[in-house]
């Protein structure tokens, strides 16, 4: 009996256990299904992140990613801000005033795939600066295939770097130039986050390069090397190019009766910094030969004199280290825009004796930017515009009501008009009472006239305001007590003559 009971009880126990197992199995399947969805979403996110960051860093392009710049950039169009327009007239050219953000590029004539150094100044200390590379307004429109009209086919601006402005608002950062592009000129923009401070500079791309024997394989533009070439037609003219094979040649040589040129000294031409070639092409035979050459950067320098001056004074400058025979474009507080003047370098890549007269509108710290027109080598040098600090006094330190006062002044701007205002009581509105003009040295003696009113007590304050320099000199005139009323007719309102308006 006991054996039978055990056998009957076994199926019941199995059934109960089976029933208990079925319920948790269903719950487990639901949990596994939710986990799979979460895991699939995470995997998709990681794949997208991988495509946007790792692949571009390895040089692999993926659909929807920018062709140059940072790998984590969004696919939406980036719009960079524009610097404020120049407003100050310097030598007939509108320029920016002081404390304006600006950047320079080194090298300015870049090679595809090369490294570019961006140096900036004039930004807020500690601010984060985003650097973008995009199409330039100076680039010629590129025609699309199959269409006669030219259309701009340059890429949209893309972020290529980030830097933090250090002390005095200065920063330096590097970025790799794209290995292929559709425009010969691209624009670099440095833009401060959360601020309207922005600066721009153009990067020109060197034309093609090829591959004759040179006495040296390294040098900078302007250095002399010896060229040896052969394999050309006897007596034919040879065009010599640096870093290209078309356009106007850097120089023309003539082959001897054997079609050769032996140890001829030539100068290194202006071309992109880095590995390039000197190319020799025969005009008659069409034969070409090339020699590899490593072009070094130019490091121009500028000397200003004086480093601090006032408006109407002349700032002189000399320079060296540019390419021989190139024009150097000079701009104020900007690496782009119209230059205020241009100077020509000599055979040694130097110039001297140039200068500019400073206008009244410029105040404080300023920078001149010097850019080689062919080499694109740039250098900036700073100077300071000092304020005028005039001194003035009256013909007497004090006096009774009715005293006639005239004025003595020094250190105003040359030949400017000076307007005299008076305050006869504290908090009173200044009243224009006289005007005069200083001489070439900014001085005047016994000029203007004013009578101390009869009801004046204590102190009269005179303000002498230079109309060109915007400088002010103040005089405190002590009025003695008269001991009683003084009968002095009130003075008529003063009107400034037209010849003393400025």
TrEMBL record:
Organism domain of life: Bacteria
Basic residues bias spans: 19-30
Region described as Disordered: 1-30, 64-87, 134-161, 481-502
Biased composition (Polar residues): 150-161
Protein name: DUF5666 domain-containing protein
Organism encoding this protein: Dactylosporangium fulvum
Taxonomic lineage of the native organism: Bacteria, Bacillati, Actinomycetota, Actinomycetes, Micromonosporales
């Amino acid at each position: 009996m006991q054996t039978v009971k055990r056998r009957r009880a076994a199926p019941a126990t199995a059934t109960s256990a089976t029933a208990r197992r079925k319920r948790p199995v269903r719950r487990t399947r639901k949990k596994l299904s939710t986990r799979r969805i979460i895991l699939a979403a995470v995997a998709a996110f990681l794949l997208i992140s991988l495509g946007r960051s790792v692949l571009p860093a390895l040089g692999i392009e993926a659909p929807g990613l920018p062709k140059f710049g940072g790998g984590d950039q969004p696919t939406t169009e980036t719009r960079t801000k524009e610097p404020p327009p120049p407003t100050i007239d310097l030598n007939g050219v509108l320029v920016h005033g002081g404390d304006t953000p600006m950047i320079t590029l080194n090298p300015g004539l870049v090679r595809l795939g090369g490294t570019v150094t961006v140096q900036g100044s004039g930004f807020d200390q500690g601010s984060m600066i985003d650097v973008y590379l995009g199409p330039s307004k100076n680039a010629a429109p590129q025609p699309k295939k199959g269409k006669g009209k030219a259309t701009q086919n340059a890429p949209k601006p893309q972020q290529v770097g980030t830097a933090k402005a250090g002390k005095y608002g200065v920063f330096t950062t590097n970025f790799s130039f794209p290995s292929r592009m559709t425009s010969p000129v691209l624009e670099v923009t440095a833009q401060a986050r959360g601020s309207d401070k922005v600066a721009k500079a153009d990067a020109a791309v060197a034309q093609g390069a090829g591959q004759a024997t040179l006495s040296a394989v390294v040098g900078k533009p302007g250095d002399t090397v010896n060229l040896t070439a052969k394999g050309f037609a006897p007596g034919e003219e040879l065009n010599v190019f640096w870093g290209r094979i078309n356009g106007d040649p850097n120089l023309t040589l003539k082959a001897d009766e054997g079609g050769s040129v032996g140890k001829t000294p030539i100068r290194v031409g202006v071309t992109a910094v880095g590995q390039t070639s000197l190319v020799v092409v025969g005009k008659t035979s069409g034969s070409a030969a090339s020699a590899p050459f490593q072009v070094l950067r130019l490091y121009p320098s500028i000397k200003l004199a004086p480093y601090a001056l006032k408006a109407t004074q002349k700032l002189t400058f000399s320079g060296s280290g540019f390419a021989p025979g190139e024009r150097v474009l000079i701009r104020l507080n900007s690496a782009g825009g119209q230059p205020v003047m241009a100077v020509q370098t000599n055979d040694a890549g130097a110039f001297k004796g140039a200068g500019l007269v400073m206008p009244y509108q410029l105040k404080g710290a300023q920078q001149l930017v010097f850019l080689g027109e062919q080499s694109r080598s740039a250098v900036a040098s700073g100077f300071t515009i000092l304020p005028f600090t005039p001194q003035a006094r009256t013909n007497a330190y004090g006096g009774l009501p009715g005293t006639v006062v005239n004025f003595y002044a020094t250190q105003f701007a040359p030949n400017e008009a000076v307007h005299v205002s008076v305050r006869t009581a504290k908090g009173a509105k200044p009243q224009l009472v006289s005007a005069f003009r200083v001489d070439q040295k900014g001085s005047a003696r016994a000029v203007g006239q004013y009578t101390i009113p009869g009801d004046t007590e204590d102190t009269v304050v005179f303000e002498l305001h230079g109309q060109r320099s915007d400088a002010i000199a103040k005089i405190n005139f002590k009025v003695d007590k008269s001991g009683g009323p003084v009968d002095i007719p009130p003075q008529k309102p003063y009107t400034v003559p037209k010849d003393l308006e400025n």
